[in-house]
From TrEMBL:
Keywords tagged on the record: Glycoprotein
Descriptive protein name: Phytanoyl-CoA 2-hydroxylase interacting protein
Organism: Nothobranchius furzeri (Turquoise killifish)
Domain Phytanoyl-CoA hydroxylase-interacting protein-like C-terminal: 112-335
A GO cellular component entry from the record: cytoplasm
InterPro entries in the record: FN3_sf, Ig-like_fold, PHYHIP/PHYHIPL, PHYIP/PHIPL_C
Top-level taxonomic group: Eukaryota
Pfam families: PHYHIP_C
Source organism phylogeny: Eukaryota, Metazoa, Chordata, Craniata, Vertebrata
Gene, per the UniProt record: CABZ01070468.1
Length: 335
């Protein structure tokens, strides 16, 4: 009878990306030469079952032939970005009859996958460009909220709309989710009027600010996300960060920068002649969500009641999850 295999120990995870990682562990020297296969049991942390590893003969999610450690584990079909995972390993020796002699499960180790890298965001950006449509003129950025929000800004924040932490809506791998602070604005206009839409899911009061306050040559423009919520229309998330600010420093190494004067989503064109006004344009076929990384004084704009409805909660994107099956806005890495 073959001697039992030692239990893998000192599990280490390294070289973690949004859809891959390397794993290594210690085992007895004699087992290193005997082992023919490794079993990897991987699960999301929130689905962790304390009894899931108690049966040695339960098939695992990943079965691999023994290779020199650290072993690479990759695949967007089972790994998602920015997600906590639990992992445990077994070593095994395949017997002549096809059965396996297996070790005990190792201890469970937890780790978190990474955000989209620049190359992944570039793929997402390339997809978004195909959906942007033509450019339409606009003149104001706007932000809808309930009266309590604006009362709070005036009473507690000295009239400044302060940046808030970006939620987890959109692509799970976007580097700004849960990490970058900002104030969200819209700029899309209605086709027939060229004005902001009358309705909003976010509140009956609308703060409007001249486009030039947020979009000018002193601002850096970054692409952050492209997603949909099981609908035909798509959202593009852009970041506007004043040059040299903390938000700019965060974005410049993580997000693709766009040319303010030439891109498919949001543009600024300086006046060509004295007396002319700058020209501001937005993409017509996607909904733009524009995150400005600095505080905005209310006295730089105006707060007014919208003329339409504000009870369109089905259209809100707060913590909205991306449709993982959409072929338009998904790329071949974790969702």
């Amino acid at each position: 009878m073959d001697a039992p295999l030692s239990t893998p120990c000192n599990i280490k995870i390294c070289e973690v990306t949004c859809d891959s990682f390397r794993i290594m562990w210690d085992m007895a020297p004699e087992d290193s030469t005997r082992a023919t296969h490794f079993f990897i049991d991987l699960s999301r942390k929130e689905n962790r079952d304390p009894n899931r590893f108690k049966h040695r003969d339960v098939p695992t999610k990943l079965v691999a032939k023994a290779v020199p450690l650290p072993m690479a584990v990759r695949g967007h079909w089972f790994l998602s970005p920015s997600t906590d995972y639990c992992v445990a390993v077994q070593t095994a020796v395949k017997q002549p009859d096809g059965d396996y002699l297996v070790s005990e499960w190792s201890q469970i180790v937890e780790f978190c996958t990474g955000d989209y890298a620049m190359e992944h965001l570039q793929q997402l950006l390339d997809k978004a460009k195909g959906s942007a449509g033509r450019l339409l003129k606009f003149s104001v950025f706007y932000r809808n909220q309930h009266p309590d929000y604006f009362d709070y800004v005036r009473r507690e924040c000295g009239g400044l709309m302060r940046p808030a932490l970006k939620d987890t809506s959109g692509s799970h791998g976007s580097p700004i989710n849960g990490k970058l602070h900002g104030v969200f604005f819209s700029c899309n206009t209605e086709f027939d009027t060229g004005l902001p839409p009358r309705d909003s899911p976010y509140g009956p009061l609308r703060f409007q600010i001249p486009a030039g306050y947020l979009l000018n040559p002193n601002i850096c423009l970054y692409f952050a996300d492209f997603y949909c919520m099981y609908t035909a229309y798509h959202y593009v998330v852009l970041v506007l960060a004043p040059i040299g600010t903390e938000g700019d420093a965060f974005c410049c190494s993580r997000l693709p920068m766009l040319d303010l004067t030439s891109n498919p989503f949001l543009t600024f064109t300086a006046p060509k002649r004295q007396g002319e006004e700058p020209l501001y344009c937005h993409a017509s076929d996607v909904i733009l969500e524009v995150l400005f990384t600095e505080p905005i004084p209310l006295d730089q704009g105006a707060v007014e009641q919208i003329s339409g409805h504000h009870q369109l909660m089905s259209l809100t994107t707060a913590n909205a999850k991306k449709d993982p099956s959409c072929k338009v806005c998904n790329i071949s890495v974790g969702r």
